[in-house]
C-alpha cells in the first residue's frame, strides 16, 4: 500500500471513530456526522441538523415560456459553503411538480417536500469540493419536453401543456465526516404560456396550446409610488418654506439607481411613445401616488435641512443633498402622469381604523379627501375620485364607515377581505385543499358591502349611499409583495401559507410573482369573472429590472391573447354584484394596525389645531396664511397613524409615532404660549377712579389672531369687556380697558387672553392696581363739609332776617354805610385832593 493510500485509510478510520463517538454523545463537537435525511425547502422550515450549503437561484432565462420560445431554458444559481467543514462532490439537479391547479397552490406548492417534485432531471457536477466560505456559480440548461435530439447533459421536465409549474433545485454533497446527502434546495415557479417545439432550429412545429373556453382576462394594475414619512414633526409652515427631514435616504431613493427612480424608470419604458411596447398596455396601468411623498419631494426641490441624528428632533441639522435629484424625479413624474390614469393613496398610508378612532372630521378630511386635490395640483392631472386604496388591503367596519362618510363610493380590498355567509369559512381560513387540486371560490370584481350602507342625509331624496369594494387577487398580491428588497408579507395572506420569504432569493421571488400573474389567465375558474386587479404593496421594493419584468409579463399575457388591458376607471365603474357582502378583517391586520392608545392624544391635538385655526386671521399683507401655517402640524398627526414600517416586526414604528406625537404636542404648547399679555412692572396707578386700564398684548405668531381679554375683576372694580380684538403678526398692541375702581387699596386683577371661543392663550398675569379714589372716607368728609357750610349760611341768614347782629360779628367794627357814610367818604376824597395840590 502506498503512503497516500495509508493516509486515506487512516483518515477513514478516524472519521468512523469520530462518528461512533459522536453518536454515543462523547465525540468532539466539530466532528458531527450528518445523516442522509433531506432538508426541507425554503418555505417549510429549516433542517434539524447543521447547515452546510446554501443554494440560491440567480436567474431563469427566459422568465416565462411561450410557444415562440426556444425549447430550452437556462437556470443559473450559486452554491455557497456556509458550514464549518469542506463539502465534496457538489452536484445539482432540477425537479418539477405537477402544475398548480388552485390559486392557493401558488404558495402551498412551494412548501411541499421534494418527493412531490416527482419529475427529476439528472445530477450535474458543480464542484469537486467547496471549502468553508467558498461559493460556486452554476448554469443548467433544461429542455421543456423530451426529444430525440437532446444532448445527454440536458434534462427534460416533460412539460407538454401550458400552466404554472413548481420547480425545485436540489444540491447534493458530502460534508467531511459525513455521507452524501441533499444539503439544500431552492423552489420557484415557471409560467408556461405555450409549449415550443423540441427542435431548437424550429424544424418541428410548436405544440398547439389547448384552447381556453374563456375570454382573455381583463387586467388592471396599480403602480404604487410611496415612501415612509420623512418630514420632522412639529414644524409649522414658515414663509421661507425650508423643510426639515429626519434623514436623507429619500435623496438616494430619488437619485439614479434608487428605488423610486427605478420604479419610475420601469414605468417610463412602457408609457413613453418611443418605448417600443404596445401603447394599449398603458390602459391597464394606474399610478397610485402617496401625496405625502409628493409634498416631501416638492419641499426637497428647494434648500432643505436634515437631522444629524434621526432620533434627536431638536438636535443639530445639516444641509440636504437631494435637491437636484428631487427636481429631476418630480419633473419626470409630471411629464409621465398626464398620459395615464392616476389615483391618490390615503395620506402617508394612514390606518383608516385608527383615523376613525381618533374621531376628528377635519383630520380625516385632510387624510382622505385632500390627497386627490394635492395630487392634481402637484402633477397637473385629474385623478380618479371616490376610490380609497388602504395600505393594508383590508379595512375594519369603522374604517369603511369613515370612507363612506367622506364621500368614497369604492374601496380597493383583498378578495378575502370581503365575504358572504356561504364562503366566509373559505375566506377566513383560506384552507389549502389536499394536494392543491380543488378550485376555490372567488369574489366578483366589485361587490356591495352590506354592512356599510349609510342612510341618506336629512331631507335627501336620493337612495342610501353604499360603499362598494373592488377586490384584487391575494395570491398575485402576496407574490408581488415578495419582490425586491425587504419584502413584507401582507396581512391578507392566509396563515396556512405564510413563511419567511427572505429565505428565497430575489430571482426566485420574482419567478413566483410571474407565475401568480399568469395563473388566472391560464386557469379559468367556474363562477369567477375573467378579470384581475394586480396590487403591489404601496412601498414596493422592486428594482428597475424586476419592475420591468413584471410589466413585460403583463405585455406577454396581452400579446398571447390571455389578457386584455382594462382601465382602472372601468373597473370601479362596474355595476356591483347586488348580493350583500360583509367585511372580514383578519387578525394579522389587527396586529399590524396602529395601537389604540394613539387615538385619544391625536384627537386632542387635532382639536387644538382646529381651535387655533379658527382664531387666526388671513390678512392679505401677511406672508403666511393660517392654513399654510397649521396644516403641516395636522399632517404630522396623520403620520402618527401611518401603517408604514408596521409590518417590519420591530418597535421602530411605535417609537417614531410617539416621537411625532410628542413633537407636535410640544409645538402646539409653544404656539398657544406665543400669544399673551405682557405683565406691567410694579404697581399700576390709576389717575382717578374712572381711569382706563392700559394693557399690552403680544403675538409672536407669524399670523394675525383674534383674541379676547379674560379679566377676573374683583368686587371693588367694574371693568368693561372690550370684545374681540385682533393682534398683528409678530407684533404688540396696546389696549385701554375702561375701568371703574371704588377703592383706594392695592387691588390684584388676574388678566389673560383667550381665543374668540374662549380657549386660553399664553399665561395669565396678575396686575396690581392702585386708584387715587378715596372711596367712602372721601364721601363722608365731603358730606360733612357741605352740611357745615349749609349750617353756617343758614345761621347768618336767620340773624339777618331778624335784624340782629350775628354773634360771630361781635368785636368787628365795619366801615359806616348809608348817606352819612357816603358824605364822609366824599369829604375824605376832597381833602386828599387838596392835599395833593
Major sheet: arrangement of strands: 16-17-20-19-23-18
Oligomer: single chain
Strand content bin: 15-25%
The whole-angstrom Rg is 44 Å
Number of strands: 34
- Beginning-to-end CA distance, first to last residue: 184 Å
| Helix count from the secondary structure assignment | 21
Relative helix content: 25-40%
Q: Categorize the overall geometry.
A: elongated
**How is the biggest beta sheet arranged?**
6 strands, mixed
Low-confidence runs: 1-47, 202-210, 421-441, 456-464
Overall structural class, as computed from helix and strand content, comes to alpha/beta
What's the pLDDT, averaged over the residues?
A: 83
Summarize this structure briefly.
The protein has 837 residues and is of the alpha/beta class.
Could you please describe the fold and organization of this structure?
The chain is an alpha/beta fold. Helix content is 31%, strand content 24%. A hairpin with a 5-residue loop joins strand 8 (163-175) and strand 9 (181-192). Helix 17 packs antiparallel against helix 18 (626-640).
Amino acid at each position: 500500500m502506498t503512503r497516500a493510500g495509508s493516509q486515506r485509510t487512516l483518515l477513514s478510520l478516524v472519521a468512523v471513530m469520530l462518528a461512533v463517538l459522536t453518536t454515543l454523545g462523547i465525540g468532539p463537537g466539530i466532528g458531527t456526522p450528518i445523516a442522509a435525511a433531506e432538508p426541507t425547502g425554503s418555505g417549510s422550515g429549516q433542517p434539524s441538523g447543521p447547515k452546510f450549503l446554501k443554494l440560491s437561484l440567480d436567474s431563469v432565462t427566459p422568465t416565462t415560456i411561450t410557444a415562440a420560445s426556444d425549447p430550452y431554458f437556462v437556470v443559473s444559481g450559486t452554491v455557497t459553503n456556509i458550514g464549518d467543514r469542506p463539502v465534496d462532490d457538489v452536484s445539482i439537479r432540477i425537479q418539477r411538480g405537477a402544475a398548480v391547479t388552485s390559486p392557493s397552490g401558488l404558495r402551498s406548492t412551494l412548501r411541499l417536500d421534494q418527493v412531490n417534485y416527482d419529475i427529476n432531471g439528472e445530477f450535474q457536477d458543480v464542484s469537486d469540493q467547496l471549502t468553508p466560505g467558498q461559493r460556486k456559480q452554476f448554469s443548467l440548461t433544461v429542455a421543456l419536453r423530451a426529444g430525440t435530439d437532446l444532448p445527454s447533459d440536458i434534462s427534460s421536465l416533460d412539460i407538454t401543456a401550458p400552466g404554472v409549474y413548481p420547480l425545485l433545485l436540489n444540491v447534493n454533497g458530502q460534508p467531511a465526516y459525513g455521507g452524501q446527502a441533499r444539503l439544500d434546495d431552492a423552489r420557484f415557479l415557471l409560467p408556461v404560456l405555450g409549449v415550443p417545439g423540441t427542435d431548437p432550429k424550429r424544424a418541428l412545429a410548436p405544440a398547439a396550446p389547448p384552447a381556453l373556453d374563456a375570454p382573455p382576462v381583463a387586467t388592471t394594475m396599480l403602480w404604487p409610488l410611496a415612501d415612509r414619512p420623512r418630514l420632522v414633526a412639529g414644524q409649522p409652515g414658515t414663509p421661507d418654506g425650508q423643510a426639515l427631514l429626519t434623514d436623507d435616504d429619500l435623496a438616494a431613493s430619488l437619485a439614479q439607481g434608487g428605488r423610486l427612480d427605478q420604479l419610475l424608470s420601469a414605468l417610463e419604458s412602457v408609457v413613453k411613445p418611443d418605448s417600443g411596447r404596445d401603447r394599449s398596455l398603458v390602459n391597464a396601468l394606474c399610478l397610485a401616488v402617496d401625496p405625502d411623498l409628493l409634498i416631501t419631494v416638492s419641499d426637497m426641490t428647494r434648500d432643505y435641512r436634515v437631522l444629524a441624528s434621526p432620533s434627536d428632533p431638536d438636535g443639530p441639522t445639516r444641509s440636504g443633498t437631494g435637491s437636484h435629484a428631487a427636481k429631476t424625479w418630480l419633473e419626470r413624474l409630471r411629464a409621465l402622469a398626464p398620459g395615464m390614469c392616476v389615483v391618490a393613496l390615503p395620506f402617508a398610508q394612514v390606518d383608516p381604523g385608527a383615523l376613525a378612532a381618533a374621531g376628528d372630521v377635519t383630520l380625516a378630511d385632510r387624510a382622505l379627501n385632500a390627497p386627490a386635490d394635492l395630487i392634481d395640483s402637484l402633477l397637473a392631472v385629474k385623478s380618479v375620485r371616490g376610490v380609497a386604496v388602504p395600505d393594508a388591503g383590508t379595512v375594519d367596519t369603522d374604517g369603511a364607515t369613515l370612507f363612506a362618510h367622506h364621500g368614497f363610493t369604492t374601496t380597493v380590498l383583498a378578495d378575502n377581505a370581503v365575504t358572504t355567509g356561504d364562503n366566509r369559512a373559505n375566506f377566513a381560513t383560506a384552507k389549502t385543499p389536499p394536494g392543491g387540486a380543488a378550485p376555490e371560490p372567488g369574489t366578483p370584481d366589485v361587490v356591495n358591502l352590506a354592512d356599510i350602507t349609510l342612510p341618506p342625509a336629512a331631507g335627501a331624496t336620493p337612495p342610501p349611499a353604499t360603499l362598494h369594494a373592488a377586490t384584487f387577487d391575494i395570491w398575485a398580491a402576496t407574490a408581488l409583495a415578495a419582490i425586491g428588497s425587504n419584502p413584507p408579507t401582507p396581512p391578507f395572506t392566509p396563515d396556512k401559507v405564510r413563511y419567511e420569504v427572505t429565505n428565497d432569493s430575489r430571482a426566485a421571488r420574482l419567478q413566483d410573482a410571474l407565475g401568480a400573474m399568469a395563473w388566472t389567465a391560464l386557469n379559468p375558474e367556474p363562477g369567477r369573472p375573467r378579470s384581475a386587479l394586480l396590487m403591489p404593496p404601496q412601498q414596493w421594493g422592486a428594482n428597475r429590472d424586476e419592475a420591468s419584468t413584471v410589466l413585460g409579463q403583463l405585455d406577454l399575457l396581452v400579446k398571447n391573447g390571455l389578457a386584455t388591458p382594462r382601465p382602472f376607471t372601468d373597473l370601479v365603474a362596474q355595476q356591483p354584484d347586488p348580493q350583500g357582502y360583509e367585511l372580514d378583517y383578519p387578525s394579522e391586520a389587527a396586529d399590524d394596525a396602529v395601537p389604540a392608545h394613539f387615538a385619544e392624544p391625536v384627537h386632542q391635538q387635532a382639536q387644538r389645531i382646529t381651535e387655533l385655526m379658527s382664531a387666526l386671521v388671513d390678512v392679505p399683507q401677511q406672508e403666511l396664511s393660517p392654513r399654510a401655517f397649521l396644516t403641516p402640524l395636522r399632517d404630522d398627526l396623520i403620520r402618527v397613524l401611518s401603517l408604514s414600517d408596521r409590518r417590519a416586526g420591530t418597535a421602530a414604528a411605535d417609537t417614531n409615532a410617539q416621537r411625532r406625537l410628542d413633537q407636535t404636542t410640544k409645538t402646539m404648547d409653544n404656539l398657544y404660549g406665543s400669544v399673551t399679555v405682557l405683565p406691567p412692572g410694579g404697581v399700576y396707578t390709576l389717575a382717578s377712579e374712572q381711569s382706563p386700564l392700559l394693557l399690552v398684548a403680544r403675538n409672536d405668531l407669524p399670523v394675525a389672531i383674534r383674541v379676547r381679554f379674560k379679566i377676573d375683576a374683583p368686587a371693588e372694580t367694574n371693568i368693561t369687556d372690550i370684545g374681540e380684538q385682533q393682534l398683528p403678526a409678530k407684533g404688540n398692541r396696546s389696549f385701554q380697558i375702561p375701568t371703574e375702581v371704588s377703592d383706594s387699596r392695592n387691588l390684584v386683577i388676574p388678566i389673560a387672553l383667550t381665543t374668540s371661543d374662549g380657549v386660553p392663550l399664553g399665561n395669565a398675569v396678575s396686575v396690581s392696581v392702585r386708584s387715587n379714589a378715596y372711596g367712602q372716607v372721601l364721601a363722608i368728609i365731603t358730606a360733612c363739609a357741605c352740611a357745615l357750610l349749609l349750617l353756617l349760611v343758614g345761621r347768618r341768614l336767620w340773624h339777618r332776617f331778624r335784624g340782629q347782629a350775628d354773634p360771630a360779628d361781635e368785636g368787628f367794627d365795619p366801615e359806616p354805610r348809608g348817606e352819612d357814610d357816603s358824605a364822609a367818604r366824599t369829604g375824605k376824597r376832597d381833602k386828599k385832593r387838596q392835599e395833593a395840590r
